């Protein structure tokens, strides 16, 4: 499904809104200016609302949820990330991670523009029951990935706070950011939510490949998107296991979530480059 | 009537003078009542460790002499030696002073917020004694609003500047909530006690006190349901402590790296914060290199406190700018309101004259339909409104920009306002004594 000029333009507006929100959020973090905070909130809510409207519009237009291709999934991933950010802004004090999360979203959007396929929406390759299974598989994978990206943003904040504490000369920003334990718990929560979603998505992906499409194991097991997803899953399972058994904690966990982010990005890149036909995760 | 501020503060007077002039407890109520007998219409007495100030609404032209007399009489001082330490502010300078004091810009510790509640209390006390009226109400409400704006829009009060408060703040930045956390006190110095007090206020519940003498350990531990230990037991009790406050001053380090490594392992790597205020140090410095262990010694805490104070100074300029603009706005609004009685009287006078003349004409015109009579009355009112529109606008503008009284006094004189010259219809006009605006220039 090719986007019209108007739809592409609106996506551009969304990207600019997220970028302005990221800058205003950084300004608020550094200077504690209420106006910057307000600007960030207005921009991020406007961008989120506009993007939601676009997703609904394109779903209606295509007659399906826009998750049937990598470019579609990519945009939905960004929207999911902003949704989680907004939902947890107050309760989990995610607002302080705003500069990082919103910068990632804005950069993701910029990536979409630079991407060869631009913002074009891929054609559906599954319809009916198959389409539903595929849609749930991709959506859960996207939400799982969004939580992993959030864990990365929180991990970066944690590492910043640790460095400040260890320097023995903490800056004013240190006193404005959340406490180490809160960040550690938040990081854990993001992985605890993300991993089951990822697991469910993988199970559904296997069911889709073997049960729905009737493929032989040898036909899908070594598919790049399956391998990369399995690698992501193994990594986060090991991370969660180590964290829950208290073998590692604090800085090491934060570093691992940063590493996890790199693996997630590589996994998405692998799926983009090598796996245009078998799901997106 | 006008605003005057008379007082002494830590900046210009020694504590011996502030002690002499301080109002403690009920003496403050007594003072507020006594001020009335000195010709003060309204007053608020602010008495803290660092300042004693009287904010008063006094007769126009007063330089606050009656307040100085009151201070001497009330405190039974034979001489006026204290007078050399007194400062006095009048009108808008007084407003500026109050706004600065409330924002913490005149405090011993720049930007501290305790003064806000002290000023609130002082005002509430004055209001409860009927000593604070409209002037004080508006003045103090504006001052509190300004302080809130300063603390919201600048980082003035954001960082803490005493060693014990910085230590507690750092603990909060490590653990988040301190509810239920355990603290181990090694030694029982004064700063350690103060830090413990702050930690308990922040929610810390489990307290262990290790000291050379068990007796001294019990003295600190018992009142807070803590456990007293001997110094030898530190190693065993370390895993139970999230926060360690060390101040023993022992000649050798009491907490070794190996002890902390073992404790961290037993605690499943849950973080530990060591506040080492002992000289020589109680905690081996290399403990800070361990993951999830943070050691701040007295120098680090003092340095952080001093940097925080420096950050406050960086914000002071912005805070002064906010105070300046708020003072300007308050004074301008106040001045504008000063001419309100004159404007009211002017309207009343003109409408009175117009109505009188209209009725005379209507009597002469004889039988006119009711709607025609009403139309004539409406026309007269419209003419008066149109005629007064521009002069009233100018009067308000002049009051805002310059002397609030010059224009209004001239208008009052020209039109003989407040002198019952208008006739029966003007019986509701306020008398000079009732309506004279409060000076704020």
What can you see in these coordinates?
- The complex is a heterodimer of chains A (281) and B (441).
- Chain A has 2 domains: 1-124; 125-281, no CATH class.
- Helix content of chain A is 78%, strand content 0%.
- Chain A has 10 helices and no strands.
- Chain A has helices spanning 5-31, 34-62, 70-88, 98-114, 128-167, 172-176, 180-212, 217-220, 224-244, 251-274.
- In chain A, helix 1 runs antiparallel to helix 2, helix 1 runs antiparallel to helix 4 and helix 5 packs antiparallel against helix 7.
- The longest helix of chain A is centred in the middle third of the chain and has 40 residues, at 128-167.
- Residues 116-124 of chain A have low confidence and may be disordered.
- Chain B has 441 residues and is of the alpha/beta class.
- The longest helix of chain B has 41 residues, at 298-338.
- The chains are: A mainly alpha (281), B alpha/beta (441).
- The A-B interface holds A 32-34, 161, 165-166, 168-170, 172, 174-176, 178-182, 185, 246, 248-252 and B 152-153, 155, 158-159, 169-170, 172-176, 268-271, 288, 291-292, 294, 296, 300, 303-304, 307-308, 311.
Largest sheet of chain A: none
CATH superfamily of the largest domain in chain B: Glutamyl-tRNA reductase, N-terminal domain
Estimate the global geometry of chain A from the Cα principal axes.
flat
Summed over residues and divided by their number, the pLDDT of chain B gives a mean of: 85
Strand content of chain A: under 5%
Return the CATH class of the largest domain in chain B: Alpha Beta
């Amino acid at each position: 499904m090719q986007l019209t000029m108007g739809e592409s333009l609106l996506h551009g507006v969304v990207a600019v809104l997220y970028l302005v929100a990221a800058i205003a959020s950084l300004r608020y973090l550094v200077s504690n200016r209420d106006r910057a905070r307000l600007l960030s909130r207005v921009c991020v809510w406007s961008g989120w609302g506009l993007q939601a409207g676009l997703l609904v519009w394109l779903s209606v237009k295509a007659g399906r949820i826009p998750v049937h291709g990598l470019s579609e999934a990519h945009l939905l991933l960004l929207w999911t990330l902003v949704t989680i950010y907004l939902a947890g802004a107050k309760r989990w004090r995610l607002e302080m991670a705003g500069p990082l999360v919103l910068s990632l979203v804005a950069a993701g959007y910029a990536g979409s523009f630079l991407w060869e396929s631009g913002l074009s929406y891929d054609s559906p390759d599954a319809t009916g029951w198959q389409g539903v299974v595929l849609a749930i598989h991709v959506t859960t994978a996207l939400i799982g990935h969004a939580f992993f990206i959030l864990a990365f943003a929180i991990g970066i904040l944690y590492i910043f706070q640790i460095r400040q504490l260890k320097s023995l000369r903490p800056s004013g920003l240190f006193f404005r950011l959340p406490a180490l334990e809160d960040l550690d718990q938040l990081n854990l929560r993001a992985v605890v939510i993300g991993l089951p979603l990822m697991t469910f998505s993988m199970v559904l992906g296997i069911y889709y490949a073997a049960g729905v499409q009737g493929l032989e194991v040898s036909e899908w097991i070594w598919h790049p998107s399956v391998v990369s997803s399995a690698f992501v899953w193994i990594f986060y399972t090991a991370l969660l296991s180590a964290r829950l058994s208290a073998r590692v904690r604090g800085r090491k966990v934060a570093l691992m979530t940063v590493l996890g982010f790199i693996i997630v990005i590589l996994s998405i890149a692998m799926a983009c480059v090598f796996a245009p036909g078998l799901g997106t995760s | 009537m006008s605003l005057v501020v008379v007082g002494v503060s830590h900046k210009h007077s020694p504590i011996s003078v502030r002690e002499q002039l301080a109002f403690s407890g009920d003496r403050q109520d007594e003072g507020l009542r006594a001020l009335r007998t000195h010709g003060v219409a309204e007053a608020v007495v602010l008495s803290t460790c660092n300042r004693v100030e009287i904010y008063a609404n006094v007769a126009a032209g007063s330089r606050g002499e009656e307040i100085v007399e009151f201070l001497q009489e009330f405190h039974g001082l034979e001489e006026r030696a204290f007078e050399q330490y007194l400062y006095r502010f009048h009108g808008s300078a007084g407003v500026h002073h109050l706004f600065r004091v409330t924002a913490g810009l005149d405090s011993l510790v720049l930007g501290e917020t305790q003064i806000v509640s002290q000023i609130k209390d002082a005002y509430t006390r004055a209001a409860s004694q009927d000593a604070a009226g409209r002037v004080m109400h508006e003045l103090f409400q504006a001052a509190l609003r300004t302080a809130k704006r300063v603390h919201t829009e600048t980082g003035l009060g954001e960082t803490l500047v005493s060693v014990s408060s910085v230590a507690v703040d750092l603990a909060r930045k490590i653990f988040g909530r301190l509810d239920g956390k355990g603290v181990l006190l090694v030694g029982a110095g004064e700063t350690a006690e103060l830090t413990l007090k702050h930690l308990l206020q922040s929610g810390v519940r489990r307290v262990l006190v290790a000291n050379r003498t068990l007796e001294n350990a019990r003295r600190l531990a018992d009142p807070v349901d803590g456990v007293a230990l001997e110094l030898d037991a530190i190693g065993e009790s370390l895993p139970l402590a999230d926060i360690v406050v060390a101040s023993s001053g022992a000649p050798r380090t009491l907490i070794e790296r190996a002890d902390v490594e073992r404790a961290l392992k037993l605690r499943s790597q849950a973080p530990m914060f060591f506040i080492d205020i002992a000289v020589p140090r109680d905690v081996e410095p290399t403990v800070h290199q361990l993951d999830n262990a943070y050691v701040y010694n007295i120098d680090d805490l003092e340095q952080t406190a001093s940097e925080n104070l420096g950050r406050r100074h960086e914000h002071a300029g912005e805070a002064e700018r906010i105070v300046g603009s708020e003072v300007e706005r308050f004074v301008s609004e106040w001045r504008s309101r000063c001419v309100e009685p004159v404007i009211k009287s002017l309207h009343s006078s003109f409408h009175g004259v117009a109505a009188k003349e209209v009725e005379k004409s209507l009597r002469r015109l004889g039988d006119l339909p009711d709607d025609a009579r009403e139309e004539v009355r409406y026309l007269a009112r419209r003419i008066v409104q149109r005629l007064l529109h521009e002069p009233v606008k100018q009067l308000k503008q002049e009051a805002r920009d310059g002397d609030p009284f010059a224009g209004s006094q001239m208008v009052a004189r020209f039109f003989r306002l407040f002198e019952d010259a208008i006739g029966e219809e003007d019986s509701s006009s306020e008398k000079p004594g009732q309506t004279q605006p409060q000076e704020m220039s």
